[in-house]
Design brief:
Order of helices and strands of chain B: HHH
Shape of chain A: elongated
Radius of gyration of chain A: 36 Å
Number of strands of chain B: 0
Largest sheet of chain B: none
Oligomer: heterodimer
Number of strands of chain A: 2
Strand order of the largest sheet of chain A: 1-2
Helix content of chain B: 55-70%
Helix content of chain A: 55-70%
Chain lengths: 804, 115
């Protein structure tokens, strides 16, 4: 099957979800949904052996050929890894959600439709080789994330969190689009592979640095890097399966993916390396520090996710250094990219299980407030075991996979001492130090999460529900992920060969031409080296600080909320709402008159400008019809009647004068040899006048004597402008014909083709039959509207003004 | 003739726009009526006012003698549509007056939410 169609399978499946929910409501809709990611996972897994060898797949579906826009599915090591994460974690999360969301109380059709849309979008992001469709899917993930966060839309916090995430990620997305457009201008192509092939030339271009910064803005907002991370903690209002899936395992890694994917394009730049590594590392230490301030279990996990994303981001930044060193494959610099991908996999496993546990605790005890929890160890032994495995892995302890990637992270940071460009020879020492501090806090919050929930004193009186272990179905997914956490520790090199090395080869194509050449062996023990001592230091200091946590945790409350980034966001939103409102109130006056003035003036301006710029105004004196006495007399009557309307005191006079204008026009039609028009105009005008009189003459309440219209200079000026413009247009249009008129064709063929003598009638019912059909439709719509208006009775009932 | 007609068309448009900018609902509707008259004459003039015979096939009339039938067909459509729109406007105004007791546009500003 064509790869590009597979991307759309979840979104197509989403079409059937409402039906399944309505018709087969007694079966939880999740069971049907589960089939989609599970089947996709199995299918994509069959591609693994050939991708391991360095094989790639391309499949293309043309979308807008004239703009050179196409859906291109490109499967290499990097995109296959993400694809397996999306479908694999997706299947586990759907399974978990079946037990998390009640089939009777929740609006499952909404939930699963959004989730499947997200799945398609995310597959599209990681498989697109085309920049524009990549952007399209990117924004689709933002939108589906918005819908999922706001799933419980009656809660204020949900809507606030949804809007915040949307604002920030879509802002980043738009910036990224700008970067993509610059890239395509520089490289003359939308294809990422072709851009990578011409990377050295691109680096010389003037736009290069702009494209780089704009693309990074997109990646940083999506992957919640400092200072854009503030949307992620608020996104925790989403149902927990969503948090586990979108806001920890997949969507927030889209930014990581983008940075990894575009590393070959941008890595030559010093700015790239400093920004990606610097922002990533700072995010890591900042978020791990503030994770300890959180009281909400999911809040802790949100900050921890931000921190871990920063860690992976910084590794990718350091990985760019390998581009600048001859024979980098033989130095320690090679570890950075490998560690990034390896940790990405590990993070998905342990953080996914931790989120599910947080959801279970919320579900079974009714609260996520860590101050109320404690002592759940004996009540929820399975959950505790899973949480312990996940947390210790996150903290970097053996025998869990987090230990391996944390060691490699430190190795990669230390490897910067081998790198002496970009003033790194002076500053490199900061990287391992900051990384170490961040790791210490990571250690503390990991223990904080698990022990303050499960150890300590049980406080049943604080909990809304009687705590007990979760049902077995809810535990399957987290237990499975926890098992993976342990398993990966023992078979790291198998995972390395299957998943990590193909991805690394895709990130660093100039270093390795096939995944087999990635010469990295993961081992839990590599002697007494600096990394080991750093790790031991983390355990010692971290353990000590966790021991004394209660003594210093209140120091976080000293930090004032008034200067936080969240506050900045709130202020900016208020300002932009208020500003936009004030600005639009300047011209949106609520008077139709004002709007008409804008329209008429603008139209006049545009038409006159066009006439002037194209030198289109001319008068042709040669081809004029002669001026006759009758015409002049009728025109004088017409003008006289028009002036009467303008000057009339009463409505009645105005209505009758309008009738006079209409009859003059009918007479003009007679003179200009248009008998059908004259007949129609006479009939219509008569009915119109009768209608006018009916409507206004027979309304007794309205006073027939009215003030004469006051002369208003502004209105007169606009009216004069329009009048003059129309005269000029009429003259120009008559004087020049760019193309021969189709009338000649009608005149010649009317009898032999259409068999009719009256050319106008034949045109209406035959040549332009559809016009007439729609004309009748308009007439019908107006008729329905009139009946509705007459029958409509706007009686004011009590209690109908909810919006007031 | 076309030049004289163009000036008359300009005048019709001018009067129409001036009326449409006024406060009274009935004047606005009269304005739209004048506007459609102006537009019809504009179509006719654009095609040229020549031609010595109505566009009906008859013996002894050569093709070049017919008045241009295309603008006439377009105008015929336009007349009917403008009638439909005008009558809808009228009923709308009539009902608005019945419900609200005024036809003054200044008072018909329905934007109290922003006040």
């Amino acid at each position: 099957m064509s790869l590009v169609f597979l991307i759309f399978i979840p979104i197509l499946a989403a079409l059937f979800i409402p039906l399944l929910f309505k018709r087969l409501g007694q079966i939880h809709t999740g069971w049907f949904v589960l089939l989609v990611p599970a089947a996709l996972f199995l299918y994509y897994a069959t591609r693994l052996p050939s991708v391991m060898e360095g094989g790639t797949y391309v499949s293309e579906l043309s979308w807008i050929p004239s703009l050179d826009i196409a859906f291109v599915a490109y499967l290499d090591g990097l995109s296959l890894l993400f694809t397996l994460l999306i479908t694999g974690i997706g299947a586990l999360v759907v399974l978990y959600s079946i037990f998390y969301l009640d089939k009777h109380r929740e609006q499952l059709h909404n939930f699963y439709v959004y989730l499947l849309i997200f799945m398609s979008a995310m597959l599209g992001v990681v498989q697109s080789d085309h920049l524009i469709t990549l952007y399209l899917f990117w924004e689709l993930t933002s939108i589906s994330s918005f819908l999922l966060i706001a799933y419980w839309y009656t809660r204020d916090r949900s809507r606030f969190g949804a809007l915040k995430s949307m604002m920030i990620t879509v802002f980043g997305g738009l910036m990224m689009l700008g970067g993509f457009v610059l890239l395509s201008i520089m490289g003359g192509t939308y294809s990422i592979r072709e851009l990578i092939a011409q990377a050295p030339e691109l680096a010389q271009h003037d736009f290069f640095i702009w494209a780089l910064v704009l693309v990074l803005l997109g990646a940083f907002t999506k992957s919640a890097q400092f200072p854009f991370y503030i949307w992620l903690p608020d996104a925790m209002e989403a149902p927990t399966p969503v948090s586990a899936y979108l806001h920890s395992a997949t969507m927030v890694k889209a930014g990581i993916y983008l940075v990894a994917r575009l590393t070959p394009v941008f890595a030559l730049s010093e700015v790239w390396m400093w920004l990606v590594a610097g922002v990533g590392l700072f995010t890591m230490v900042w978020a791990s520090f503030f994770a300890l301030k959180q009281k909400d279990l999911k809040g802790i996990l949100a900050f921890s996710t931000v921190s871990q994303l920063g860690l992976i981001m910084s590794l990718l930044g350091v990985g760019a250094a390998a581009y600048h060193v001859e024979g980098a494959a033989d130095t320690y610099l090679k570890y950075a990219a490998f560690a990034a991908i390896f940790h990405l996999i590990n993070h998905a496993t342990f953080k996914g299980s931790l989120f599910m546990i947080a959801g279970i605790i919320d579900h079974e005890t009714g609260t996520r407030d860590i101050r109320k929890l404690g002592g759940l160890m004996s009540l929820m032994p399975v959950s505790f075991t899973v949480a312990l495995i996940g947390s210790l892995s996150m903290a970097g302890l053996p025998p869990f996979n987090g230990f391996l990637s944390k060691e490699m992270f430190l190795t990669a940071m230390l490897s910067l001492q081998e790198f002496n460009m970009f003033s790194m020879d002076v500053w490199w020492v900061l990287f391992p130090i900051i990384a170490w501090i961040g790791s210490v806090f990571t250690f503390i919050y990991s223990l904080y999460f698990v022990f303050h929930t499960f150890a300590g004193k049980h406080q049943p009186e604080e909990l809304p529900k009687q705590a007990h272990e979760a049902p077995i179905g809810m535990l399957i997914s987290p237990v499975f992920l926890a098992a993976l956490v342990v398993l990966i520790f023992f078979i790291p090199n198998l995972i390395g060969d299957w998943l990590v090395k193909p991805a690394v080869a895709a990130i660093q194509p100039f270093l390795y031409d096939s995944p087999q050449n990635v010469d990295i062996h993961v081992s839990a023990w590599h002697g007494f080296n600096t990394e080991l001592f750093m790790t031991l230091g983390i355990f010692a200091i971290g353990g000590l600080m966790f021991w004394t946590l209660r003594k210093w945790q209140h120091l976080y409350d000293v930090y004032p909320d008034s200067i936080s980034l969240n506050r900045l966001y709130d202020e900016m939103m208020l300002l932009s709402y208020g500003g936009a409102n004030r600005f639009s109130r300047i011209y949106m006056t609520g008077f139709i008159r004002s709007y008409l003035v804008y329209m008429f003036s603008f139209m006049t301006f545009i038409v006159l400008l066009t006439l002037f710029l194209n030198e289109a105004f001319q008068i042709d004196f040669s081809n004029l019809a002669p001026i006759g006495v009758y015409e002049i007399v009728i025109l004088l009557a017409l003008v006289g009647a028009t002036l009467t309307i303008l000057g009339s005191k009463s409505r009645l006079t105005a209505i009758i004068a309008l009738g006079a204008v209409g009859y003059s026009v009918a007479l003009l039609f007679v003179i200009f040899r248009a008998p059908d028009l004259a007949l129609t105009q006479l009939v219509i005008e008569t009915i119109s006048v009768a209608l006018f009189l009916l409507a206004f003459y027979h309304l007794p309440q309205i006073s027939r004597k009215e003030e004469r219209m006051k002369f208003r200079f502004g209105n007169a000026l606009v009216a004069l402008g329009v009048g003059v413009t129309m005269t000029l247009v009429a003259l120009s249009a008559h004087s020049q014909k760019s193309l021969p008129s189709i009338s000649e064709f009608y005149k010649e063929t009317v009898y032999k083709e259409a068999g009719g003598g009256n050319i106008v009638n034949v045109i209406l019912v035959d040549y332009r039959g559809f016009d007439t059909l729609f004309e009748i439709a308009v007439l019908g719509i107006a008729g329905i509207g009139i009946i509705t208006m007459i029958r409509l009775r706007l009686t004011k009932k009590e209690g109908q003004h909810e919006n007031k | 003739m076309e030049i004289v007609m163009s000036v008359a068309i300009g005048l019709l448009f001018m009067a129409a726009v001036y009326l449409m900018l006024s406060k009274s609902l009935i004047r606005i509707i009269i304005g739209t009526g004048l506007l459609s008259h102006g537009a019809h004459l504009l179509l006719l003039t654009m095609g040229g006012l020549g031609g010595t015979a109505p566009p009906v096939v008859a013996d002894g009339v050569t093709v070049s003698d017919y008045a241009d039938p295309l603008p006439q067909a377009l105008i015929l459509t336009a007349i009917v549509i403008s009638f439909a729109v005008t009558s809808f406007f009228l009923v709308l105004a009539y009902r608005a007056y019945q419900e609200l007791g005024t036809d003054n546009m200044e008072l018909l500003r329905g934007t109290e939410d922003y006040e």
